[in-house]
Write a structure and sequence with these properties.
5-stranded antiparallel beta sheet; about 625 residues; Beta-Lactamase; Phosphatase 2c, domain 1; hydrolase; 3 domains
Length: about 625
């Protein structure tokens, strides 16, 4: 292109350039999926802008050399003013550099691109605005332009005031009359985002196009996936929330994920994930051993409780250094870093740090907002996980007071039992079983409190302890149950207990078992030949009224016979057959027991467990208890 030789031609060329750039913007917005032709045309317009700038500089030189006649000085001043106006109004970012690479002048579009006024940028070293990984290449291009006078065009990244931009940068030499050294015009065209219309702020002019909308939708979907993952039952019951969250973020938004969690007031490294397609396992192991306290960025986020994003890494020391002194960010080849607190409100439970490689698009403010939400979600999940684990430990402690660790051996008898809490978050159950010494032999019991939770477990423990204590002095299970009932009424717990309890004296002829029932399902008797029958059962639950009487019966067990006690949770549990819900019930239990003739107590209990699991479709929802007592000799 021929350079304009006078001011009217410059004005006309500038007007045409402005119109064409506006058309290119419209084309990019209309056809975002095919940016190639638009970008090629934009590069041509960069050449046009360069030539316009050269023409403007030439006119400026002429005006300085032109002798001042009558009115000449005023005319020259008007021309200088017009040229400055033209430079400032150029619709593309233009920065004038001296031979050392320092900023001498900045037009309005360049100020808008870099996010600072020209007065702030003037005098600063332009290489400091270039990505660390690309500064050496920029200096080489600058030197070549100064020595050869030939124009250089190349892609690079600029960053300032928290903004980062991928640009096509064109460097061209300028010779300005009156200047002691040569100048360089740097024309930058952002290639990753639309340049705002002249005179308008980005916020006022930017209308979300399809790529922006898709990016926003992807961010929302990522947050939705994270929320669903953290609400999963296993994420609450097991210490997997952090690792699952990290894997999700590494798969969708980051190349490196580092999580540091505060334990006992000290931040400790808990997770490091790196690029799966690169040999970084040794670096991961090294990062896992580093202290978060040595990373200034992590310490800053912990102290302030707010997130930070560096769209372009300008300080390699943000995450500290490896033992050999190499900065962590340099070893990880990070081009962009984002760090947010883990936790919600005033409580900071840790720090989540994400890195992207230099060749990847930078993190932005939208990513920061998304990750701050993610950090809050993860913090809430970790808090819920700790609460769940504390309650589980309490449940285990209470359950120890409800269930025996092992069953004692009763001479001449074979015993076995099974207990299941049911599916869902760990609940403290109200059912129990026990086998214990009594005055003249051995006692056994199975039952349950109507309810769940800590209060139900405490009542269950009271009943179990009461049965053991009273059986030391009483030889009649009905009398033991009656005394226990009166004690519960006096305690006024507001809870009812169903119990089946019995005494057996080993060696007694005929294997006599005395059974007392307080509202529990009648125990089953499996004969050695496979016949199945049930005891009378009956009686009211414990804790309703003082002085209640409870039925007692005597059951004769022959060698090979098995007495099976079971809870209401087993008999009343629901399964599905087609569309109708069915209770497990005594009918199905009878069929299972009949198939267990002659088998040991453990096999009988296992058969009931397996059948109930199949009946429940593989997921036992109800608390269930089974106790079997088989006469072996």
């Amino acid at each position: 292109m021929t350079e304009p030789t006078d001011l009217p031609a410059l004005e006309q060329a500038l007007s045409g350039l402005t119109a064409r750039i506006s058309s290119l913007r419209q084309a990019r917005a209309a056809y975002p999926a095919d940016p190639g032709p638009t970008l090629d045309a934009a590069l041509v317009e960069l050449d046009t802008a360069r030539d316009l700038l050269r023409g403007a500089i030439g006119e400026l030189g002429k005006s300085r050399r032109r002798p001042a006649g009558p009115g000449g000085r005023d005319g020259a001043n008007r021309e200088l003013k017009l040229l400055r106006t033209l430079y400032r109004a150029m619709p593309v970012p233009v920065i004038v550099l001296d031979a050392s690479g320092n900023v001498r002048r900045v037009n309005a579009e360049a100020s808008r691109l870099l996010g600072s006024p020209d007065g702030y940028l003037t005098g600063r070293a332009f290489p400091l605005l270039v990505d660390v990984s690309r500064r050496a290449a920029f200096r080489s291009h600058l030197t070549a332009v100064l020595h050869t006078g030939e124009t250089a065009a190349f892609p690079t990244r600029l960053a300032h005031q928290g903004r980062a931009h991928n640009v096509q940068l064109v460097l061209t030499q300028l010779r300005m009359a009156g200047e002691p050294q040569e100048m360089i015009a740097a024309v930058a065209l952002p290639v990753e985002a639309r340049t705002p219309e002249p005179g308008r702020a980005v916020e006022q002019d930017a209308t979300p196009d399809e790529p922006q909308l898709l990016a926003g939708a992807r961010r929302q979907e990522l947050l939705s996936q994270l929320t669903r993952l953290l609400l999963d039952e296993e994420s609450l019951s097991q210490p997997v929330a952090l690792i699952r969250s990290g894997r999700l973020l590494a798969a969708h938004t980051a190349d490196w994920v580092i999580a540091d969690v505060v334990r006992e007031g000290v931040a400790r490294r808990s997770l490091v994930l790196g690029p799966t397609n690169q040999p970084v396992s040794r670096l991961i192991r090294t990062l896992e051993r580093l202290s978060p306290a040595a990373a200034p960025l992590i310490s800053h986020v912990l102290e302030r409780g707010t997130g930070v994003v560096h769209e372009m890494v300008e300080d390699d020391s943000l995450l500290g250094a490896l033992p050999d002194g190499v900065p962590v960010l340099q070893a990880a080849r990070a081009g962009s870093v984002l760090s947010v607190p883990i936790g919600a409100g005033e409580e900071t439970a840790g720090v989540l740090t994400l890195l992207r490689l230099r060749e990847r698009p930078s993190f932005g403010l939208a990513d920061l907002a998304l990750m701050e939400d993610a950090g809050a979600h993860i913090g809430l999940a970790l808090r819920a996980q700790r609460t769940f684990q504390d309650r589980s430990q309490a449940a285990d402690t209470l359950q120890t007071g409800v269930l025996p660790r092992t069953l004692p051996e009763i001479p001449g008898y074979d015993t076995a039992a099974a207990y299941h809490t049911g599916a869902g978050p760990r609940a403290i159950g109200g059912e129990f079983y026990d086998v214990f010494r009594v005055k003249d032999g051995w006692g056994f019991a199975l039952g349950g409190v109507v309810g769940q939770g800590e209060e139900a477990a405490s009542v269950t423990a009271l009943v179990r302890g009461g049965l053991r204590t009273l059986s030391v002095w009483e030889d009649d299970p009905a009398e033991v149950v009656a005394r226990l009932n009166d004690a519960l009424v006096v305690q006024d717990t507001g809870m009812f207990v169903m119990v089946a309890a019995g005494f057996v004296t080993p060696g007694r002829r005929g294997g006599r078992v005395r059974l007392a029932s307080a509202g529990n399902h009648p125990p089953a008797v499996l004969k050695a030949d496979g016949e199945v029958g049930y005891t009378s059962g009956g009686g009211m639950p414990l804790g309703i009224e003082t002085g209640a009487k409870f039925p007692v019966e005597e059951v004769a067990l022959a060698i090979g016979d098995t007495l099976v006690l079971y809870s209401d949770g087993l008999a009343g549990s629901r399964g599905r057959s087609g569309q109708a819900e069915l209770a497990y019930g005594e009918g199905r239990l009878t069929e299972v027991l009949a198939r267990c003739a002659g088998q040991p107590a453990t096999s009988v209990v296992k058969a009931v467990e397996d059948d109930h699991l199949a009946f429940s479709g593989g997921q036992v929802l109800d608390e269930t208890t089974v106790l079997a007592l088989r006469r072996a000799r």
